[in-house]
Amino acid sequence: MIRVVLPAHLRTLARSGSEVTIEVSGQATQRSVLNALEAQYPALLGTIRDHVTGQRRPFVRFFACAEDLSHESPDTPLPEAVATGKEPFLIVGAIAGGSR
Amino acid sequence: MSSVRVLVGTRKGAFVLESDGKRSKWNISGPHFGGWELYHVKASPADPNRLYASQSSGWFGQMMQRSNDGGKTWETVGNKFVYDGVPGTHQWYDGKPHPWEFKRVWHLEPSLTDPDTVYAGVEDAALFRSTDAGQTWTELAGLRGHGTGAQWQPGAGGMCLHTILLDPSNPQRMFIAISAAGAFRTDDGGATWQPINRGLNSAMLPNPTAEVGHCVHRIAMSRARPNVLFMQKHWDVMRSDNAGDSWHEISGNLPTDFGFPIDVHAHEPETIYVVPIKSDSEHYPPDGKLRVYRSRTGGNEWEPLTKGLPQSDCYVNVLRDAMAVDSLESCGVYFGTTGGQVYASADAGDSWAPIARDLPAVLSVEVQTLP
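^ Those are the sequences you sent over. The predicted structure of the assembly is below.
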């Protein structure tokens, strides 16, 4: 079981609480976690990463275990504490967009 | 008794304003999708309870919403907009080729006859269609592919397809407009397109009368007379009497012919409305006076409509999709401002009153006249 913390707007879209739990088959990576998250909450498709390229959206960040994992390869294994559910995988809206 | 529902898209959510046919007391619901930009909310003419909404954010991109109960509840539908084939390039601000990249949906135009069919005008400019109530979207690629696409370039607000007009007398005919490419028409249901910009004159272009490149801000038509089109260009108010084959200027005595919205009275096809804005570098009304201008002669002769509108110290803008009319016997006219006011007139513009005062900046206004 992997714990994922969603930012407020994505909780609204997913109609979920702040933290959701997902099951990942095989190794826990950004890609496998996001695949499982989107399968469980289809309303999140396209909101975290681009539909076509699969690239992380520019103002979305991935944090875990007090580290910024945003620039890691999507296929790099996530920390053991995330894979075991001890620590959550945080999806964060970057501090940006205040001009409007 | 008839009633009216006004659908307002703002920088921070959507609002639904409802009134009976007197249009004097309004109930406001919202914000729907609070915190998100709602570029456009529009209802199906074939099913007044079917609404579509374009919801976007700088963080999480484009979402699409659908309501089957007139905006009381909403469900997320498909947000996958993928250009057909190899997207190719258009011009960037520096004149260099730039790949087409989807950014957001500016405008939604539901079919006149089928509630499950809806068109979407997007940035970077392209036209998409859904025939399954918004679940999936397919590009009508003949528009970008007709030959001039590589010459299109973004206006200050982005390279957006912002206007879609469906011809009620001919289901094969549609008009669209792009900033800054111009106006285009299809006569075969969207398979092939032609530029319809003859007569436009844009001094900021190297060739002011070029086939494409014009910054068209908005086009409007009367459903009773779809061969007559009215256009608010970046500068210049224009008219075509032959479905866009040629245009002539009708700015006449307007204090400035820069502006964004233009609309037509529901029952009088020669009565049109614009909101003059001082200039493209000062996006506010001249002299701090918010004035709608009305022509009852199809252009050239314009009268200011000021009763009930602020006539001093007003520096809001009215964006291109933020004006609409109802179809009650005494035509109602509505517009929203970047200051968050929505003004309504129940007497074709003779007098105005704010029906919402303190919303976020208004991006779009649409009106439904309900039985």
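The CA atoms of residues 15 and 85 of chain A lie 22 Å apart. Chain A has a mean pLDDT of 94.

Shout if you want it in another format.
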